Amino acid sequence: MPAVTTDNLLVLPRIPRLDPALARHRPVVQVVTAPKQLEGEGFQVRRPFPSVDLRTADPFLLLDHLGAVEYAPGEAKGAPWHPHRGFETVTYIMDGAFEHHDSTGGGGLIADGATQWMTAGAGILHDEMPPEWLVHKGGLFHGVQLWVNLPQTLKWTPPRYQDIGADKVVLVTSDDGGALVRLIAGDLAGQAGPGVTWTPITYVHASISPGAQLQVPWRPDFNALVYALSGVGSVGVEGRPLREGQLAVFGSGDALTIQADRRQDGRSPSLEVLLLGGHPIREPVAFYGPFVMNTHEEIVQAIQDFRTGRMGTIPATYLGR
Ligand code: MN
């Protein structure tokens, strides 16, 4: 996959081996299979949360896994103009591309291992569409979009973007070189990822070779979620099975264990996982479509603000597209 990779894992910084006498391994409390549903113009996503209790995922609100899908010519779909308020969207594209435009006049291409971090904050309108060449020719598409909540004090922050190129992703490996660990945001084992987050989180994409085990230290004040993008393996020192499209929710402790099965299915040479953790916000959540606020009244206000153009308008250049 074009998500950033390397020919030689052994030259990367290594995550030190955990001290078995000291590590408090987090137990797996729940494994859920992500339900499938249609989004935008009708593309299928797998959505592991919010199908779990939102308090379990806090500060995360939603995870959409798009693909992997091989689009035939004319088939690629996206999400036309829509608003957001009250949180951040983080779009990570492993294969293929999304083009985006927004009501502030900003825009760009997210492709092949790049991440776009959009703080919607007080409100923004944007579209997220496959580029014309992808629609025309078809091709492989694989990405994820994560929604990170903002606390009440930051919901009205002005919108902003961070475009994190594939070359900015911090690469490390496990103590035996059996896993490629891409740090997209936050800290892991003394390394700092490129994403700057309002709410402290750690966001990792790891490729674990067949038969290899990845053990990482994990902040005890963070929650811990592991989602399998592809492949088969197990999680926790208890070895609970996990396969493509499943999310593992961990209990308390300060270390995570993920293991790839020796035999992987034909489509995926390794176990591909996202590791997600953050400091819970623990505020009331009023979640209505693209708006995430604290109260019902703020949702009513968001709908009014969107309808009256106070959340921004579609720039004339893109009208009618
Ligand atoms: Mn959006």
Give a brief description.
This protein is mostly beta strands. It contains 3 helices and 26 strands. It has a 7-stranded antiparallel β-sheet, with no helix packed on it. A 7-stranded antiparallel β-sheet has the order 2-3-4-11-6-9-12.
Helix and strand topology:
Blueprint: E1 28-33, E2 36-39, E3 43-49, H1 54-57, E4 60-71, E5 79-84, E6 87-95, E7 97-102, E8 107-111, E9 115-119, E10 124-129, H2 132-137, E11 139-149, E12 160-164, E13 170-173, E14 179-185, E15 187-188, E16 191-192, E17 201-208, E18 213-217, E19 225-230, E20 232-235, E21 240-243, E22 246-250, E23 255-260, E24 271-278, E25 286-288, E26 291-293, H3 296-307
Antiparallel strand pairs: 1-22, 2-3, 3-4, 4-11, 5-10, 6-9, 6-11, 7-8, 7-10, 9-12, 13-14, 14-17, 15-16, 17-24, 18-23, 19-22, 19-24, 20-21, 20-23, 25-26
The chain binds manganese (II) ion.
Manganese (II) ion (MN) binds at residues 79, 82, 84, 89, 126, 128.
Please describe the structure with a list of short key phrases separated by commas or semicolons:
single chain; 321 residues; Jelly Rolls; seven-stranded antiparallel sheet; 3 helices; 26 strands; binds manganese (II) ion
Provide a descriptive summary of the structure in words.
The protein has a seven-stranded antiparallel sheet with strand order 1-22-19-24-17-14-13, with no helix packed on it. It has a seven-stranded antiparallel sheet with strand order 2-3-4-11-6-9-12. 7% of the residues lie in helices and 46% in strands. It starts with 27 loop residues before the first strand and ends in a 14-residue tail after the last helix. β13 and β14 (179-185) form a beta hairpin. The protein is mainly beta and 321 residues long. The protein is globular and about 60 Å long. The protein has helices at residues 54-57, 132-137, 296-307, and strands spanning 28-33, 36-39, 43-49, 60-71, 79-84, 87-95, 97-102, 107-111, 115-119, 124-129, 139-149, 160-164, 170-173, 179-185, 187-188, 191-192, 201-208, 213-217, 225-230, 232-235, 240-243, 246-250, 255-260, 271-278, 286-288, 291-293. The protein is built from three helices and 26 strands. It has one domain (9-318): Jelly Rolls, CATH 2.60.120.10. The structure holds manganese (II) ion. Manganese (II) ion is lined by residues 79, 82, 84, 89, 126, 128.
